[in-house]
Amino acid sequence: MNSYSPSRRHAQRGIGLIEALVSLLVLALGMMSFAALQARLRLNSDVAKQRAEAVRLAQEQIEGFRSFGTLATFDAVGSGSSTVTASSIVSNASYTITRQVTDTPRAAGLTSAPVKNLLVTVTWNDRNGNAQSVIFRTIIARSDPAIAASLALSPNGSPVRDLLGRDIQVPIPARNLGDGTSAVKPLADGTIAYVFNNDTGVVTQRCSGISASTVTNELTLATLSAAGVNCANIFGYLVSGFIRTDASNNPNASNPNDWPPGSVAMRVDLDNTPPPVNAQGEPLPGTTQQLTAAYWPAITSATGTTIGSGSGTYTPAECNAQAMQNVRYTAPVSFTQTNNGNTTTVTTTTVIATIPLSVTSITPSSVAPWVGVSAANAAAQIVNPQWTGERFVAYSCLIYPIDLDLNASTAAAYTARVALWPASDWTIGTGSSDWKVCRYSADYNLNGGVYISSGGVVTRIDNQEHTYAYLNAQRSLGNQNFLLVGGRERCPTDGSVEVNGTGGENYTDETTVTHQP
After folding, report:
1. Do 303 and 406 belong to one domain?
2. Phi-psi sector, 483: left (phi>0), alpha (psi -120 to 50), beta
3. Which residues pair with 395 in a beta bridge?
4. pTM of the full predicted structure?
5. Backbone angles phi, psi at 31, to 5 degrees
6. Which domain holds residue 347?
7. Residues 405 and 512 in one domain
8. How far from 457 is each of 375, 451, 467, CA to CA, in Å?
9. 277 and 412 share a domain?
10. Are 46 and 52 in contact (CB under 8 A)?
11. Residue 106: what pLDDT?
């Protein structure tokens, strides 16, 4: 049977051509949209590039206004608008920059505005001729540029504060005078006091003529301004520490409590040689030669001297040394404390105090002056005072720094060696009847060593870790401690003891090294 159907074949004619035309129309519409998208992307890309350039131009205007060199330049810019034009090949556009300055209201009596408002507007036309703009608003303070420049200067003090809220270079026993300064007597029964700036730790005054019976705890502003007291303004650093003694055949640096062999004097030798510089012209601390005894003059008296090839002139250092001892006593207190929910009342506490070794009778009245207790309250505030067995010599040396590196922009500094001199009844040497001077010195902060050198030049030094000599030191140095042992004995090396047991900073290393002879 023949299944051919002419009508069915006729119904299918022309369908392929119509579908092709419709597809072509859809494709054309898609291409037109894509072309429009491409044009929009190119426009947005251009505008983004132009806006970045406009932001740069606006910031340039702002920073140019901020960089006034003097306050007079700042004041000369009055309120008003100014317009400039700029072109950029980077973004292929021309810009109009408008800067508008407005003085803020000023208080009565002020001749200059403390702050100026600055409005910077940058306008331009994009590739389609549409106006574009960026607007920056800021304020410019009337601040002396010299203040900002001072930030580049080396600091004279340390930013670290101790538990009394003062710079760590201020001795803890110093009496806070309440005006941003503290004072201490280097000799308990002396007539001199040093005044420190609490913020920088620098010695700012040397006061003489103070009564020998006035102790550090009794120093006040009135005391230092009393008749007969002369306070001279100075700029100085204090090198201080303790001298302990171990007379045994096997000396131990941990707990030496023997009597000093005799009176001790301190000697300071100074070096005015400018420190070497590196390839960039920056000053380095000094040379390894300066850390050897051979470099310094022989110690033949208690009077130090100045050596070196520089032109700076030091004022001689002033040193004091006094035998001291520790006492323990009980003082009344009244406070409560809670631990695990249990509240207890505390009525007494133990106090450790340092007093001159010349105080041989340890009684409430003899201890009272040295701990700031009045004679009337001595019996009640100082209960059962006892000697602890600790005795030592406390010393301090006031050093006047100079412009050591001949650069006025750096802090005043000093290069010095501090040594002991036997004032009476004993000698320094290696014989059986002599004494050897050891110094406590180790890498306490675990940063690689007391000093680092290269080619005979010291590239880094930790003066506070008690080097043989202090190189280009720019601060006071405390806890520069010594130990006296028999002339034939070795300076004890006790090794380090970690504070936290995990290799952290170590402040209990009692290693000593030979200092004299």
Report:
1. yes
2. beta
3. 241, 321
4. 0.67
5. -65, -35
6. 325-389
7. yes
8. 57, 10, 15
9. yes
10. no
11. 62
Query: What average pLDDT does this structure show over 22-27?
Result: 78
pLDDT above 60 for 504: no
To which residue do tokens 């006729």 refer? 10
Q: Is residue 434 part of a domain?
A: yes
Whether residue 457 sits in one domain with residue 380: no
Q: Is residue 144 part of a domain?
A: yes
Q: Which of 106, 136, 108, 138 is nearest to 122 (CA)?
A: 136
Query: What is the rounded distance in angstroms from the CA atom of residue 125 to the CA atom of residue 140?
Result: 30
Over pLDDT 90: what percentage of the chain? 43
Which of 127, 150, 173 is at the close of a domain? 150
Token pair listed for 253: 């640096």
For residue 357, being part of any structural domain is answered with yes
Q: Do 294 and 421 belong together in one domain? A: yes
**21: Cβ–Cβ under 8 A, 6 or more apart, which residues?**
none
Q: Which helix (H) or strand (E) holds 513?
A: strand 512-516
Tokens found for residue 278: 């590196």
Residue 107 lies in a domain: yes
The better pLDDT of the pair 208, 41 is held by: 208
Q: How many domains does the chain have?
A: 4
Contact yes or no for 491/485 (Cβ under 8 A): yes
Tell me: do 443 and 420 sit in the same domain. Answer: yes
- Domain end: 126, 150, 174, which one? 150
Above 60 in pLDDT, residue 223?
Answer: yes
Who has greater pLDDT, 3 or 441?
441
Q: Are 104 and 78 in contact (CB under 8 A)?
A: no
Tokens at 235, concatenated: 């700029």
Task: Summarize the chain as % helix, strand, coil (round to 5).
Answer: 20, 35, 45
The answer on 168 and 52 residing in a single domain is no
Reading the block at residue 16, the tokens are: 């392929």
DSSP β-bridge partners for residue 241: 395
Same-domain pairing of 308 and 330: no
